[in-house]
Design brief:
Layout (H helix, E strand, L loop, with lengths): L6 E5 L16 H14 L4 E4 L4 H10 L7 E4 L4 E4 L6 H7 L5 H8 L6 E2 L10 E5 L5 H14 L3 E7 L6 E7 L4 H11 L7 E5 L5 H4 L4 E4 L5 H13 L5 E3 L4 H11 L21
Parallel strand pairs: 1-2, 1-9, 2-3, 9-10, 10-11
Antiparallel strand pairs: 3-4, 5-6, 6-8, 7-8
Helix pairs in contact: 1-9, 4-5
């Protein structure tokens, strides 16, 4: 049985980092720093989960003056790093050989408007693309059908970048993704989902909630993501999704209290009951 109180995990952009168009409440960053320091002192492992590549994730965290975590999950769950920046080789082996990005683009190039993201945003197990607008279900099905001509063991994660309105599309191995990567980290501590806390704000965070963790959407989460979360709650009885009223780190603090995890972690964690928005 694990001796750590629980695993604290959070998305970065728009969740832990107050960097969307909505401003944080006065003192939010200071309260977030205090929380992270207190969690570390209490023996809670801290994991930051980001679609960014590792160097950019660290740069973003440093720009807001927040302390470094115990673990990093980067590039949409295709890479895991420890506090020293060492790549988790066991996770890398689990994902298999690198993607053939040339072959993937060959089958996708004729889709109008679709284009690869910058080279630094790609990864060995992540092929990322832009689309001018929100990628609808028909487009996603078309992309997925094409990439599976190259490798049947691939999946697609889609979201929208708030600042530009661009569609973000990530082709990943089926065994990758934020949810599985976070499960890999939790497994190192022998923690079940009820002792894993995860906060997010975007569509590419939602797969984590289906695993039964103490899931949270912060108060600045866009309405379409809340609608998708409602659908998950309806079809997945194990999903726990608390919608905080407060934004960013303040919403995280609110959610930790809702689940009974902090400030005084206890042996029994109460079931998270979703707010009316997700009923």
């Amino acid at each position: 049985m694990s001796t750590v109180p629980f695993l604290f995990a959070s998305d970065l952009d728009g969740t832990l980092l107050p960097n969307t168009s909505l401003p944080p409440a006065p003192g939010c960053l200071e309260r977030t720093r205090t929380l992270l320091s207190a969690l570390r002192e209490a023996g809670c492992p801290i994991c930051f989960v980001s679609g960014r590549y590792f160097a950019l994730a660290r740069k973003g965290l440093a720009s807001f003056g927040l302390p470094a975590p115990t673990w990093w999950i980067c590039n949409m769950g295709t890479e895991i790093y420890d506090a020293s920046g060492r790549l988790d080789q066991r996770w890398e082996r689990r994902l298999g050989p690198p993607l053939d990005q040339g072959a993937l683009w060959h089958v996708l190039a004729e889709i109008s408007g679709l284009r690869p993201q910058e080279s630094e945003k790609q990864g060995p197990h992540k092929f990322s693309l832009y689309y001018p607008g929100a990628p609808d279900e028909r487009l996603q099905c078309d992309i997925l059908s094409r990439v599976r001509e190259v490798d049947v063991h691939l999946m697609l994660v889609a979201s929208v970048e708030e600042s530009t309105g661009l569609g973000l599309l990530d082709v990943l191995p089926a065994d990758a993704g934020k949810a599985r990567a976070l499960g890999h980290v939790a497994g190192a501590y022998r923690l079940g989902p009820d002792r894993v806390f995860f906060a997010g704000d975007s569509g590419n965070d939602l797969d984590v909630f289906e695993q039964g963790c103490c899931g949270t959407l912060v108060g600045n989460t866009p309405a379409p993501v809340l609608e998708d979360a409602s659908s998950i709650r309806a079809r997945e009885p194990e999903a726990r999704i608390f919608v905080a009223q407060a934004r960013y780190g303040d919403g995280i603090i609110e959610a930790l209290g809702h689940y009974g995890l902090w400030p005084r972690p206890s042996a029994g964690f109460r079931e998270g009951k979703p707010r009316e928005a997700l009923s």
